[in-house]
Design goal:
Elements: H1 5-17, E1 21-23, E2 35-37, H2 39-58, E3 63-65, H3 75-79, H4 82-85, E4 87-92, E5 99-101, H5 102-110, H6 115-130, H7 134-143, E6 160-163, E7 167-169, E8 181-183, H8 189-193, H9 196-202, E9 209-218, E10 233-243, H10 248-264, E11 273-277, E12 287-295, E13 298-309, H11 311-320, E14 326-331, E15 337-341, E16 344-351, H12 352-363, E17 364-368, E18 377-381, E19 392-396, H13 403-414, E20 420-422, H14 428-438, E21 442-446, H15 448-453, E22 455-460, E23 466-470, H16 474-481
Parallel strand pairs: 3-9, 19-20, 19-21
Antiparallel strand pairs: 1-2, 4-5, 4-6, 7-8, 9-10, 10-16, 11-12, 12-13, 13-16, 14-15, 17-18, 21-22, 22-23
Helix pairs in contact: 2-12, 5-6, 6-7
Pfam family, one: HGTP_anticodon
EC number: 6.1.1.14
Family: Belongs to the class-II aminoacyl-tRNA synthetase family.
Length: 483
């Protein structure tokens, strides 16, 4: 299986060194699978978030956004099936006491095998998972002699289910028998479903229409790993598209195509993506697939597209005893109005943190620029200009002769339009390298010629080419490039 662990580790180190992502609470030795976004990482994440939101709401005729609370009435999660079904098979090694998620354990072993053999093992695992054959999963692990990474033994417990929801007490006094128990939401979708009628009626929305949301979700992963790919606190960008029953197949294919268009708009080649159809469908779905990206750790899910049928709205209607129906006045093929029905839903759900990791993986490049006589190299992040944390580096050649003052005037002109960075320390070459390392697509150097003819040197990150342009043209040039 394809795996470039050296590149993956280099990206992790680069993220910490250049202010993208830090281990959370690091001065206290960190907290497993929890990360903080630094000054550049938070800008990158915000840019991705804003780009998705604009594409999904502002540029659509029939999709609106909401921001639902993280805490929800606990019956929500009973109705959604999470209390009974939101579990993963786990297994413990009796010698090391280390707990593994079964699919992660087998996938990790498969990555050490030749590609065909690894694919065959994964296919066997997926069939056993689909059948919920826990004894078969344990037998598969033992027959392939899959060892614990800590103890090196194959002394395993039986496979059993593990619920992934975090629970907490709600209110100032703990109740008895879980009276005050609430959950940290494991997904953002339910906040959309319980607000379906509020949005539909207040916005006078007509089927088909969508509701989008970006927000935090929490999952008590058995084994969280692989940097920000799988965390216990993460952010989702989801859209639920409400449709007439019976039209789900065509809308499912429509949103598969539309979401891939969005991914390709990030400047990532189509060859780096693939669709993966689910073998085991979630309890709410009649069709589901993932959009996978070829990370340095192999092809992994970035986004899921699911045909959720009417499961969610129907269950919320049952548990809340509130009608979750839509009256459709349109006339059907039989000449009669469609009338009242519970809509079906197509869901698109993309991990914001995984998207950040995808962009970092695609952008990161180590370049050898030197010769045998004069070694030179750089690390560059080739982000799309519209998503780069900093759009323009403004660099006066020296700290004197009025050059910083000209640079500050340019900074004042541009900073209200896009993110700029000003620096006057070190040689211009070192400053260029630092800008490359955080992915800044343009750098402007103000030198003594600027005072004479009003021109500056613009340097392009990807090609490292430089040219003279008028100082007054800088803002418009960069603004046009980041649209």
């Amino acid at each position: 299986m394809a795996n470039d662990s050296n590149k993956f580790q280099a990206i992790i180190s680069h993220c910490k060194e250049y202010g993208f992502i830090f281990p959370s609470s690091e001065i206290y030795d960190g907290l497993s699978a929890v990360y903080d976004y630094g000054q550049n990482g938070s800008e990158l994440k915000k840019n991705v978030r804003d780009y998705w939101w604009k594409w999904m709401t502002q540029l659509q005729d029939n999709i609106v956004g909401i921001d639902a609370a993280i805490f929800m009435h606990p019956t929500t999660w009973k109705a959604s099936g999470h209390v009974d079904n939101f579990s993963d098979p786990m297994i413990d090694n009796k010698d090391s006491k280390k707990r593994y998620r079964v699919d992660h354990l087998i996938e990790g072993f498969a990555e050490t095998l030749p590609e065909a053999e690894g694919a065959e093992l994964i296919a066997s695992m997926e069939k056993l998972l689909a059948a919920e054959d826990f004894a078969g999963l344990k037998q598969l692990i033992e027959s392939r002699k899959i060892k614990c990474a800590i103890s090196g033994t194959v002394n395993w417990t039986d496979v059993r289910q593990f619920n992934l929801m975090f629970s907490t007490e709600f209110g100032s006094v703990s109740g008895e028998e879980g009276d005050n128990m609430v959950y940290l939401r494991p997904e953002t979708a339910q906040g959309i479903f319980v607000n379906f009628l509020n949005v539909q009626k207040s916005g006078r929305m007509k089927i088909p229409f969508g509701i989008a949301q970006i927000g935090k979700a929490f999952r008590n992963e058995i084994v969280a790993r692989q940097f920000i790919f799988r965390m216990r606190e993460f952010e989702q960008m989801e859209m639920q598209f409400f449709i007439r029953p019976g039209t789900q197949k065509e809308w499912y294919e429509f949103w598969k195509t539309e979401r891939m268009k969005w991914h390709l708009s990030l400047g990532i080649p189509e060859s780096r993506y693939r669709f993966h159809d689910h073998v085991k469908l979630a309890h709410y779905a009649d069709a589901a697939c993932d959009i996978e990206y070829d990370f340095p750790i192999g092809f992994k899910e970035v986004e899921g597209i699911h045909s959720r049928t009417d499961f969610d709205l129907k269950n919320h209607q049952e548990f809340s005893r509130k009608k979750m129906q839509y009256f459709d006045p349109e006339v059907g093929p039989d000449g009669k109005p469609y009338g009242n029905y519970i809509p079906y839903v197509i869901e698109t759900s993309i991990g914001l943190d995984r998207t950040v990791m995808m962009l970092l993986s695609e952008a990161y490049e180590e370049q050898d620029l030197g010769t045998p006589d004069k070694p030179d190299s750089r690390v560059v992040l080739r982000f799309p200009a519209k998503l780069a944390p900093v759009k323009l580096g403004i660099l006066p050649l020296t700290k004197k002769d009025g050059l910083p003052e000209i640079a500050q005037e340019l900074m004042a002109e541009c900073r209200s339009v896009f993110k700029c960075f000003y620096e006057e320390k070190d040689t211009i070459g070192k400053r260029y390298r630092r800008m490359d390392a955080i992915g800044t697509p343009f750098c402007i150097t103000i030198d003594h010629q600027t005072k004479e003819d009003g021109t500056v040197t613009i340097r392009y990150r990807d090609t490292m080419e430089q040219e003279r342009i008028p100082l007054k043209a800088v803002k418009d040039l960069v603004d046009k490039a980041i649209q």
